[in-house]
Amino acid sequence: ETKRRRRKKRVMAAISSNVKLSGTFILVVVLVGMMVLASTPTATAAVSCNTVNSQLMPCLGYVTGSGIGAPSATCCSGMRTLYGSLKVAADRQAACRCIKTLTSRFANIIKLNVIKTLPNKCGINLPYTISPSINCD
């Protein structure tokens, strides 16, 4: 029986050691994970022009037309979605630069007097007027 007790003690010691080791391992993994998260930059990448373009594409017919009446519900929905997603200054500035590029590139087909009224007609208050000369800073 003493052999049996000693064997049982060794097994219990080995199990206890493994439990301590696995607990230590888990602690190390958690600490490393926390360090990785802490070193990750908190600012998100600025919004892409592809995102801006896709949200504003439904407005193309309106801003190249007469501007009489209301823009389509899809146009206004895209604008609201876009502007609602611009939470940080970097995103707002990136979107502004994309809009500035679009209005400059397509100034010959976009009616600037119509595009200036678009945010207001969609119920969006912008602190600037959409034009090829927007100051995005």
From TrEMBL:
A biological process term (GO) from this entry: lipid transport
Domain Bifunctional inhibitor/plant lipid transfer protein/seed storage helical, residue spans: 49-136
GO terms assigned for molecular function: lipid binding
InterPro entries registered for this protein in UniProt: Bifun_inhib/LTP/seed_sf, Bifunc_inhib/LTP/seed_store, Plant_nsLTP
Keyword RNA-binding: no
Superkingdom of origin organism: Eukaryota
Keywords: Lipid-binding, Transport
Entries under SMART domains matching the protein: AAI
One protein family per Pfam: Tryp_alpha_amyl
Role according to the record: Plant non-specific lipid-transfer proteins transfer phospholipids as well as galactolipids across membranes. May play a role in wax or cutin deposition in the cell walls of expanding epidermal cells and certain secretory tissues.
Family as reported in the entry's similarity comment: Belongs to the plant LTP family.
Name used for this protein in its record: Non-specific lipid-transfer protein
Gene source species: Nymphaea colorata
